[in-house]
Amino acid sequence: MKKISILGSTGSIGTSTLEVVRHLGEGYEVIALSTRQNIDLLEQQIKEFRPKIVSVSDPQKAQELQKRLPSQEILTGIEGAIAVATHPETNLVISAMSGVIGLQPTVEAIRAGKNIGLANKEVLVSGGEFVMSLVKKHNVQLIPIDSEHSAIFQCLVGEDSQNIRRLILTASGGPFRDCTATQLEQVTVEQALKHPNWSMGAKVTIDSSTLMNKGLEVIEARWLFDIPSDQIQVVIHPQSIIHSMVEFNDGSIKAQLSEPSMLIPIQYALTYPQRKPGILPPFDFLQSEVLQFHLPDTVKFPCLALALNALKAGGSFPCTMNAANEVLVDRFLQGQIGWMGIGNKLEQLMSRHSSVNIGSIKDLFDIDQAAREEAATI
Known about the structure:
Strand order of the largest sheet: 4-3-2-1-5-6-7
CATH superfamily of the largest domain: RNA polymerase sigma factor, region 2, helix turn helix motif
Number of helices: 16
CATH class of the largest domain: Mainly Alpha
Strand content: 15-25%
Radius of gyration: 20 Å
Oligomer: single chain
Shape: globular
């Protein structure tokens, strides 16, 4: 029996996870749910899945939900999220909270011996070496849910990691892959939120438009698969049918293909190491006759290069970059800076950052907070 806690149950990954649980039926039980403040949707989820506990980050929203559901145990704050992640009955935690706020509940879940379905890039971007050392220490499974990392994970089943030549992460290129530099200066929030292939939350959609999302995925892949950064390559693949590839030292390449739907990697994480019949109809190759590949343009999309440079620099650079990018993306969404300002301002911040060592989760939060404060004023 898979007994599941979901951190971020009302977001796109969380709602899709519950759709998969609904589809799979017997053998899967929802133990605990958390949200930031979407209590209307959470209330519906509670009534359908009957979790033991739920958590609402916003204290006022938590009180409001408690009045609606007086018999339901409702927690709040970071303590509530940690309680969801570490519930004694849970054996699989879906880490789908957006941003670095998901780091501490995920770390505590690992320390409690819970297997993790990871859909939060920031956990490994900010604290990759620290988090993976805990994964090894507590002997838990960390199963990636991002489509690219799930693809690589699937390609590596039964393989010796010593035989890997390259990990090849595919990227759609986002809505602006064919735009000129002049056109990019005029990008609006509405345009940036229209991803051509995927339906995602606002933050990850904007990151996809700048290619920062792919930079974060390279950092995540480096830690997930213990592969040096120079063996990870990004390729633009507009159709988003091949989700990623692994090239081995004999020249063979394995790829995982499917429609661009998060239902597949989510279900794989829930059923691993088994496979079960999925929700989507069989793939129609005749509707996808052309598969294209291009190198990314890091001049028009500097965020990808900044992420790769942060990974190579190591230390506190990835954590600083990730936190600053979160703030800059939010400022863009609020209309305070332009789309190109995300990359330009991030480059300024990174150029003057001095790396420090990371020895604890407190160090990560201190670095994160300092970067946010600087990014809010630049």
